[in-house]
Amino acid sequence: MSQKYPNKIALFDDDENILIALKLVVQKHYSKVSMFSVQEELLAALEAEEYDVLMMDMNYTKGEVSGAEGLSFLNELVAKFPSLSIVVMTAFSEINLAVESMKLGAKDFVKKPWENARLLKTLEQVVQLKSTTQELQKVKAVQRMDFVENAAELDFGMIGDSQVMRDLKATIAQVAETDANVLVLGENGTGKELVAKALHAASLRKEEAFVKIDLGTVHEQLFEAELFGAKKGAYTGLNADKEGRMILADKGTLFLDEIGNLSLPLQAKMLSVLQNREVIAVGDTKAKKIDVRLIAATNMPLEELLDGGKFRQDLLYRINTVEIVLPPLRNRREDIDDLLHFFKQKFIRKYKKEAIEFSPKAIDEARSYSWPGNVRELEHAVERAVVLAKDGVIYASDLVNAAKKEIYAGPGVLANLNLQEMEIALINEALKVHRGNMTKAAKDLGLTRAALYRRLEKYDL
């Protein structure tokens, strides 16, 4: 960073020596850098003129080490000065404090003692994000004046007019306009990938690539090569350079499906990439800059992700700028009729069938059935029913009864299935029993989570 940016930076700390050291580092790169050691003086300055970034210590009273006063003051600053980007400074051991700060609205954090290069990189990224956001807001004002207003009329390929779906479409319309990272939560079959694609299609990155990687199916040893790329000869059998998914998604959107499967060592590497916005291919020494919008998804509840230290809090809050929760189909039964008819028409066209209708009983039973596999299960049930329909009618026995048999197959039924059908039935039963909990279902089936995900992908479950 050799140029001097026309940004105003405020520094807040009770230690004058730290303030001076900070200013010496920062003032070489920014047009105005001001120091404050008293809360009231900082508030007066922020009210008098607009600063771009505030770097603040979280313990600024002598003897105070809990960070409580910093969190309280941060909360006040975010409420009073919403356009101010705040970077908190914490001791190396206070990572939980940094995470809590980001939950309250801080844009990033710097560990004490700091490395000058890392501090400046963090500051540069926060300034650039603020600038990008402001520019995007100007563009959006011109390009999309009616975008959010008409959100209720946009379906994004999502079928259903229930209140929960209208709210979901409005949220997608609003979030799509930003570059914020998004975490999509929902049971299997609720449409997490569809939401990710909708966010991309409605964004200013829509002309660029949408790249998906299913973390449930990638072997840990190949993760870095798959995500970051690898140079020829980096590992046995690699006879040419391999482009990583992050490079392929540059300027576009990267969709990380089932992020909950990421091991802790790989989470650390992912966090580093998100912090530095650059990747180094396996077998290479040169870093490549990346500009991607990250969307992650998981079927695991957040508390389960964090339980027992299986997922890093600091990574979670980097990927979870905005959280979108998808409802299970049983919580939006009023959409079932629309879904039935949509999928029916889709498969009539696909299989070149004549007109087919549902019997009244088939519709009634579909409305009352729990659909543990959600929209994906209903879609598969309709496809099978269309293929097997006789006399132009789909009966309850073709639709719901068949779906129930697929989810729970007793010993007599299993005896009549081939190996693939038996495996599908057992997987569906395990997922139903454990309400979509992949870890428990995999354990019941005697599989690893990765092996279960490979089967789900293989059978499109």
Automatic annotation (TrEMBL):
<feature type="domain" description="Sigma-54 factor interaction">
    <location>
        <begin position="158"/>
        <end position="387"/>
    </location>
</feature>
<dbReference type="GO" id="GO:0043565">
    <property type="term" value="F:sequence-specific DNA binding"/>
</dbReference>
<dbReference type="Pfam" id="PF25601">
    <property type="entry name" value="AAA_lid_14"/>
</dbReference>
<dbReference type="GO" id="GO:0006355">
    <property type="term" value="P:regulation of DNA-templated transcription"/>
</dbReference>
<dbReference type="InterPro" id="IPR002197">
    <property type="entry name" value="HTH_Fis"/>
</dbReference>
<dbReference type="InterPro" id="IPR025943">
    <property type="entry name" value="Sigma_54_int_dom_ATP-bd_2"/>
</dbReference>
<dbReference type="InterPro" id="IPR058031">
    <property type="entry name" value="AAA_lid_NorR"/>
</dbReference>
<keyword id="KW-0805">Transcription regulation</keyword>
<dbReference type="Pfam" id="PF00158">
    <property type="entry name" value="Sigma54_activat"/>
</dbReference>
<keyword id="KW-0597">Phosphoprotein</keyword>
<dbReference type="InterPro" id="IPR011006">
    <property type="entry name" value="CheY-like_superfamily"/>
</dbReference>
<dbReference type="InterPro" id="IPR027417">
    <property type="entry name" value="P-loop_NTPase"/>
</dbReference>
<feature type="modified residue" description="4-aspartylphosphate">
    <location>
        <position position="57"/>
    </location>
</feature>
<dbReference type="GO" id="GO:0000160">
    <property type="term" value="P:phosphorelay signal transduction system"/>
</dbReference>
<keyword id="KW-0238">DNA-binding</keyword>
<keyword id="KW-0067">ATP-binding</keyword>
<dbReference type="InterPro" id="IPR003593">
    <property type="entry name" value="AAA+_ATPase"/>
</dbReference>
<protein>
    <submittedName>
        <fullName>DNA-binding transcriptional response regulator, NtrC family, contains REC, AAA-type ATPase, and a Fis-type DNA-binding domains</fullName>
    </submittedName>
</protein>
<dbReference type="Pfam" id="PF00072">
    <property type="entry name" value="Response_reg"/>
</dbReference>
<dbReference type="InterPro" id="IPR002078">
    <property type="entry name" value="Sigma_54_int"/>
</dbReference>
<feature type="domain" description="Response regulatory">
    <location>
        <begin position="8"/>
        <end position="127"/>
    </location>
</feature>
<dbReference type="InterPro" id="IPR009057">
    <property type="entry name" value="Homeodomain-like_sf"/>
</dbReference>
<keyword id="KW-0804">Transcription</keyword>
<dbReference type="Pfam" id="PF02954">
    <property type="entry name" value="HTH_8"/>
</dbReference>
<dbReference type="InterPro" id="IPR025944">
    <property type="entry name" value="Sigma_54_int_dom_CS"/>
</dbReference>
<dbReference type="GO" id="GO:0005524">
    <property type="term" value="F:ATP binding"/>
</dbReference>
<dbReference type="InterPro" id="IPR001789">
    <property type="entry name" value="Sig_transdc_resp-reg_receiver"/>
</dbReference>
<keyword id="KW-0547">Nucleotide-binding</keyword>
